[in-house]
Amino acid sequence: MWQRKQTIFLAVAVILTVVCLSMQIGSFKTAGIGVARVYNLWYTDPLGGHHFDTWPLMAILLPTAALGAYTIFIYHNRKVQALFCALNALLIVGWYVCFFVVGKTVGDESWGLVGFKPLWPAVLPAVALILYLMARHAIKADEKLVRSMDRIR
Fold this sequence. Notes:
Elements: H1 5-22, E1 26-30, E2 35-38, E3 43-44, E4 50-51, H2 55-72, H3 78-105, E5 113-118, H4 124-152
Antiparallel strand pairs: 1-2, 1-5, 2-3, 3-4
Helix pairs in contact: 1-2, 1-4, 2-3, 3-4
């Protein structure tokens, strides 16, 4: 299982997704001095209160990590493994759509949140997206090789 390069791609993609889930992904500047910190599940206002307006980010990225981990262990079924890689890639694209919507719309007017600034952990799902696509390509190549060997017999 671990000798296949797509397994390494999938494992690194899952690790990057989990790291993104656990880190701050952005911040809002406020009209005053404070800064609101944005995580996948909540954002913290300048006084320390938690607001769960960003929960769709977690709702998309958590199943992506779980599905990616499951995909590693179904190496015996390459067609389903390639399908799950494509599904994870679509989920990550959906996460970025939600991320940009959150950057534009989330924030309490009473805090005067302005100027959304993404941080470097927000790039990790993009790297995971590339890794999922590379893994899918390698899985398809393995499937093609197996089919060509079956034709020779």
